[in-house]
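task queued by scheduler; priority normal; single chain, no ligands, no partner chains; default sampling; output format set to structure tokens
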Amino acid sequence: MNEKELQKIVEEHNANFKILIENNSFSIDEIKISQTDNPITEPTTRGGVYFAEMKEWKAEVTIFDTTISKHLSKAMLGPNKEFLDIILYATIKDRQKISLVTNLKNSMQNASKIILYLTLKDVILESQ
């Protein structure tokens, strides 16, 4: 699946996406997907922990349900030795399910919302 196809699916089904973290599901209020260049000259392992490609898919997710914050510390690298996979999923046309497997890179929070910055690891399309 190329960048334009994925972005089109995400835009068309923006309101249907949910996030699954530690077996807890939360509604996503806004989701954006983009592909960016990493500032490296060849694919590399960073810190012996994760692999960085030259181009990277990123997701920016806004959630108004701030109770998700208690699950975030278990998802980030730093306090943990491994990233926790976070799944962004939605039912799309013809009863297909799209799942975006991601890792949390950063988050910002205020009193009304949390914005998650995620790196996309995999895209899974399946029929239901």
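post-processing summary
- The chain has a mean pLDDT of 84.
- The first strand starts at residue 18 and ends at 21.
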